[in-house]
Amino acid sequence: MLSKQTINIIKSTVPVLETHGEEITGRFYDLMFQAHPELLNMFNQTNQKKKTQRTALAAAVYAAAANIDQLENIIPVVKMISHKHRSIGVKPEHYPIVGTYLLKAIKDVLGDKATPDIMQAWETAYGVIADAFIGIEKDMYQHAGEQKGGWIDYKRFLILKKTEESKEITSFYLQPADGQSLPPFEAGQYISVRVRIPGSAYTHIRQYSLSDAFHGNVYRISVKKDGVVSTYLHDQLEEGDSIEVSAPAGDFVLNDSSEKPLVLISAGVGITPMMSMLHTAVKQQPERHILFIHAAKNSEHHAFRQETEEVAKDSFAQPVFIYSEPTNDDYKKGIAFCEGRIDKSLINRLVVNPQADYYVCGSEAFMAHMQHLITTELGAPADSIHVERFGPQLSMKAYN
């Protein structure tokens, strides 16, 4: 429990964090990696180079300070981050390391403004926040390990099959190397894949959505060739090769107990968790009305078109495909698609039900635009919209 004095001191630093947050977190990462280079095995180095990770951490620190007297306000975000932590192997022993170098970074950047009272308040507050993460993650590790077929940390999987789904996306069918059964997952969840790329000093970890319903002995991920790890998977690994995988995680999951109409909206590789949701909903709720909206550049870049149509054929699912740059072949083949983008006109034309459950996945800009359209054009309540974010949470507003 934080004292009133500690709370007041932390809240007084909010304006400073808004101004110097990214400088502090940049300094934090520099200090921590210099002292503990082994932690580079757990961090996405692409995000480090792009500096998006420091922006995300700055937003999280800012949110913690602004809500220090009501930490329950950020529990949903804490849980989302905890899923990621569990999936990559963050443990209780890592939190004191983070705390040490975060406090050093605050002192380095703020200098004399970081008075002993401020530093003591932040040390106390960090302990409370760290304990919240550790407690939530303990339960997640316990669940991952104790469920039937479950495991903690990483397990070796074999690539059973590779299938090209589009010009950019390839599916990998993964089976445990030990032949054991797999634990079920919720539609929309992801796994972390850890690989050792030749010539790289550290392991690389990336999250990929499970792109099919749960079948018991095989997981499917569908990977866009974009970045170091995905390029390695596409170009270097073949059927029979192995990778390390963590147990399924994530809170962007289908509510399969809802009887509301279901609207799944995606763009590009954002289709992957939607395929899992589509398969699962049709299987478990065969009479549920589903509108499946997917945007792609054209048929060459459109993954799972045939699979989506097959699933929809004998169900109450309606697929709608939007191509922004259709090819001549797309017209010649006479395949069904809407030309352009998902906009106000299309949403109104589809007469989407404002009382539906909405799930959206794509780029940050795409998801923000969809949220705006759904709430302003359809009048749907904001809490009916669920979005998936794999990259760092960059906006402070997302935590408020």
TrEMBL record:
Its EC number is 1.14.12.17. Transmembrane segments: none annotated. Its cofactor is FAD; heme b. Residues 149-400 are annotated as: Reductase. It catalyses: 2 nitric oxide + NADPH + 2 O2 = 2 nitrate + NADP(+) + H(+); 2 nitric oxide + NADH + 2 O2 = 2 nitrate + NAD(+) + H(+). Keywords: Detoxification, Dioxygenase, FAD, Flavoprotein, Heme, Iron, Metal-binding, NAD, NADP, Oxidoreductase, Oxygen transport, Transport. The record marks 84, 388 as: Influences the redox potential of the prosthetic heme and FAD groups. Residues 152-255 form the FAD-binding FR-type domain. In the C-terminal section; belongs to the flavoprotein pyridine nucleotide cytochrome reductase family. Consists of two distinct domains; an N-terminal heme-containing oxygen-binding domain and a C-terminal reductase domain with binding sites for FAD and NAD(P)H. HAMAP family: Hmp. This is Flavohemoprotein. The gene is hmp.
